[in-house]
Amino acid sequence: MSIKRTDVLRIAVLASGRGSNLQAIIDAIEAGTVQAKIAAVISNKKDSPALERASRHGLSGFFVDPKPHASESDSRGSYDRALLSVLRQHDVELVLLAGYMKIVTKVLVEAFANRMMNIHPSLLPSFPGLDVQKKAIDWGCKVAGCTVHFVTEGVDEGPIILQAAVPILDGDSADSLAARILVQEHKIYPQAVQLFAEGRLRVEGRRVFIEQGKPAGEAAFGLS
Ligand code: GAR
């Protein structure tokens, strides 16, 4: 299915913490290298620096409180239904998880199939989960990196869109490696968003193909 877009791609960024990847997307949009509009920044943390960044740039920021959902039997699903409502109110077409430290359920995964991305600080499928820079060093890996992927129900498991590699140096700590990886995160996340905005990402099973440029104004959705 192909949808002719007349307006700019509307994205939402979900972030729990520092928000440096959010900032990279904001900067790329402001510089004109990403053609998109951030329709909403959403956090599960009230005092998240990501929400402060949103406010500094005049973007709509929302704290969606997990607490009212905690007592429900399907607390994660219930929370994601609340998120979905915010996303729909803002006509969001693409969702970006950027340091969003909550597991998303099929409520969001199905509503945004092949329209939700995540950035992860390892070369997936190696080292999903947490503390991944330390794990890469402890394993004796020589190369680490980061991955932008579409989000599926399995944590850090979806089809890979872009990756960037960085060497692991003998003197690296988890922090020094994380800092070097972060520089690359800030490059490949905006690139992935722009490829999506240009309708150039085609998903076949686990594989994401980057197509040649399409005519302006046309974007491919309904990626199989
Ligand atoms: C980034 O390194 C991102 O890759 C990682 O959290 C950090 C968030 O930084 N995400 C994950 O580990 C998700 N599995 P930021 O808030 O400054 O963008």
Q: Can you give me a brief rundown of this structure?
A:
The chain has seven helices and eleven strands. The protein is an alpha/beta fold and 224 residues long. Glycinamide ribonucleotide binds next to helix 1, strand 6 and helix 7.
- Major sheet characteristics: 7 strands, mixed
Could you give the distance between the termini? 9 Å
Let me know the average pLDDT. Answer: 94
Q: What structural class do the secondary elements suggest?
A: alpha/beta
- How many DSSP-defined strands? 11
- Record the strand order, biggest sheet: 4-3-2-5-6-7-8
CATH homologous superfamily?
Formyl transferase, N-terminal domain
Give the class-level CATH name. Alpha Beta
Low-confidence stretches: 219-224
| Bound ligands | glycinamide ribonucleotide
Beta content comes to: 25-35%
Task: Reconstruct the topology from this structure.
Layout: E1 2-4, E2 9-14, H1 20-31, E3 36-43, H2 49-56, E4 61-63, H3 67-70, H4 75-89, E5 94-97, H5 106-111, E6 116-120, H6 132-138, E7 143-150, E8 160-167, H7 174-197, E9 201-204, E10 207-210, E11 218-220
Parallel strand pairs: 2-3, 2-5, 3-4, 5-6
Antiparallel strand pairs: 1-11, 6-7, 7-8, 9-10
Bound molecules: glycinamide ribonucleotide.
Task: Tell me about this structure.
- The protein is α/β, with parallel strands linked by helices.
- The protein is globular.
- The strands form 3 sheets. Strands 4-3-2-5-6-7-8 form a 7-stranded mixed beta sheet, sandwiched between helices. Strands 1-11 form a two-stranded antiparallel sheet. Strands 9-10 form a two-stranded antiparallel sheet.
- The N and C termini lie close together (9 Å).
- The longest helix is centred in the last third of the chain and has 24 residues, at 174-197.
- It has helices spanning 20-31, 49-56, 67-70, 75-89, 106-111, 132-138, 174-197, and strands spanning 2-4, 9-14, 36-43, 61-63, 94-97, 116-120, 143-150, 160-167, 201-204, 207-210, 218-220.
- Helix 5 (106-111) links the parallel strand 5 and strand 6 (116-120).
- Helix 1 crosses helix 7 (174-197).
- The chain contains 7 helices and 11 strands.
- The protein has a single domain, classed as Rossmann fold, CATH 3.40.50.
- Residues 15, 17-21, 98-99, 119-121, 156, 182, 185 line the site of glycinamide ribonucleotide.
